[in-house]
Specification:
single chain; 2 domains; MetI-like fold; 10 helices
Length: 274
């Protein structure tokens, strides 16, 4: 028992240090974010005193416009978030499935990879114009645009995650003669989960920009359409307010993705370069 307690003490101490290190790092990130936001507000305030309002409105005017938008146009925000969530979830599931097939099917994998790479070479504007011709429903247009743009990210990253599995691990699993399901459950899925989270955190900001762009082109509701209306009526304070709202949405979604990653991958020790 004494030996066990002596062995457990260093492990507990290491765990406490890891938790403390993560908390310190998160505090530094929050502090840096607050400092940058305050600095940007100060720069906007200074700029608004030397240029006309239609170029850079005062932060007070932008804040008032933001409050008005949150009270009057909250439905448009929810519509945009719903479109974004549906497209990201579908792209995640389908992209992971395609990436697994690319990495595990020797005959069909190269053809799927070729299709995915071709998709990555097509500009987003081309997909938007094609969607306008192919679909009459605005929701179908936006869903199609976001899916064909986001899906390749998941497929390629999952494929690279499969290729990064150490050969020793594969040989060890195969020595037990597991079924395909057990190989997938105990080796492949735990290994590719970090790649899925990495992809999700990487595409969140890009997906927000794409959904707003798609709404501007193909829909009469949503944040993109409201930004287009504000631009056509020369309400620069509303344009800036929508921009700040999108920044806040991006930060919140990034935090949620990071929280889910920390919760699901809490067993993993993070390596730090000193």
């Amino acid at each position: 028992m004494k030996t066990d307690s002596k062995l457990a003490a260093p492990a507990a101490l290491a765990a406490k240090r890891a938790i403390g290190g993560k908390s310190v790092e998160s505090k530094r990130e929050i502090t840096a974010l607050i400092v940058v936001v305050i600095g940007l507000i100060i720069l906007m305030e200074i700029s608004s005193r030397f240029v006309p309002d239609y170029i850079m409105p005062a932060p007070e005017a932008i804040g008032k416009a933001l409050l008005d938008l949150m009270s009057a146009d909250l439905g448009h925000v929810l519509i945009t978030l719903g479109r974004l969530a549906l497209a990201v979830l579908f792209s995640l599931c389908t992209g992971v499935a395609i990436g697994l097939m690319m990495g595990t099917l020797p005959k069909a994998g190269p053809y799927l990879k070729a299709l995915v790479i071709i998709d990555t070479g097509i500009p987003a504007l081309s997909w938007m114009l094609v969607a306008v011709f192919w679909f009459k429903d605005p929701e179908a247009r936006i869903f199609f645009i976001l899916t064909v743009i986001l899906l390749p990210f998941y497929a390629l990253n999952v494929y690279e995650g499969l290729r990064a599995i150490p050969r020793d691990w594969v040989d060890m699993m195969e020595s037990f003669r597991p079924s395909c399901w057990k190989m997938l459950r105990y080796l492949i899925i735990p290994h590719i989960v970090p790649y899925i989270f990495l992809t999700t955190k990487s595409v969140i900001g890009y997906a927000i920009r794409m959904v707003v762009f798609a709404e501007l082109v193909a829909s009469a509701v949503g944040i993109g359409s409201r930004m287009s209306l504000a631009q056509s009526t020369f309400l620069i304070d509303q344009v800036m307010a929508w921009t700040f709202l999108l920044i806040m949405l991006n930060l919140v979604l990034q935090w949620l993705a990071g929280f889910a990653e920390r919760h699901l991958l809490k067993w993993r020790n993070e390596a730090k370069v000193r």
